[in-house]
Amino acid sequence: MISPQDIFPAIAPWVGSLDETFPGAQIKPYFAQWEVLHILSLALLGGASILLNLRLIGSGLTDESPAEVRRGVLPWLNIGVVGILVTGVLIGTSNPERLYTSEAFTAKMLGLAAALLLTYGAILPAAKTDGRLSRGAAVAATLGMALFGLSIGVFAIAKLVNPGLWHAIIAAALIVLFVTKGVSRIVYLIGLLALMATQLALHQVIFRPDDYARLDPANKIMILVYLAWILAAAAVQIVSAGRGQNGVGPAVKALAYAGILVWVVTAAAGRWIAFA
């Protein structure tokens, strides 16, 4: 078990009282409205992050330099981050015990820490210098990627919520499809369609839909195959593109992929808390 309850058992009485005191007691009757604000904030920062990171990868707003895109999206990114933090804390105080006992919440918090570290410590500084990664940004990137990996690991072993990792896999597949060009895109898409057809056959032809003893291991293998195919295509795109406009190198391009996916994993873990 890797829920906050397992990590911090001593604070259980305090957590249990949060929804009976300020501000939890006042927020609780309006939980749905605050949840909408939380999701809107997440969408705002997600859009800003996607625009910036796609530019670093070499797609999207390529008529502007990374520094120019950064200046344009930074205010919206900041508003979105402040929005999710404020609404998240308020929502948490009105529904504390669900979060306290949720493994998905642990994955979400690790993902959030990784997302903030990668975004503000590495990606924004790299974009400001048009793709050059300083020593400080490299350290932040290393720490952020370590937290990101830990978040994915927790998400992957959390009971009842680990299927939520498919959100990240689908997002990664679509990002690579968007940024890959020419024949490589066609080959990559054919491979994705073949994997989808294989997975459909596993569930509808080879095994019975309720044969979980065989389907679960098969699905885990399929996840690894999907990841291998997506990562291979991303690596080909990064290497073949080389240093893009304004000198964005392969390391920063790879970091930009992670900069999008870390927010996807964080959002997915948050949405799956209800299923824990």
Q: What do you see in this structure?
A:
- The chain has one domain (4-275).
- It has 276 residues and is mostly helical.
- It has helices at residues 4-7, 12-17, 24-27, 31-57, 66-94, 96-100, 103-128, 135-157, 165-179, 182-206, 212-241, 250-271.
- 78% of the residues lie in helices and 0% in strands.
- It starts with a helix and ends in a 5-residue tail after the last helix.
In short:
By secondary structure, this protein is mainly alpha-helical. The protein has 12 helices and no strands.
Mean pLDDT over the residues: 91
Helix percent band = over 70%
CA-CA gap between termini: 12 Å
Percent strand: under 5%
Give the tags.
276 residues, mainly alpha, 12 helices
SSE map:
Layout: H1 4-7, H2 12-17, H3 24-27, H4 31-57, H5 66-94, H6 96-100, H7 103-128, H8 135-157, H9 165-179, H10 182-206, H11 212-241, H12 250-271
Helix pairs in contact: 4-5, 4-12, 7-8, 7-12, 8-12, 9-10, 9-11, 9-12, 10-11
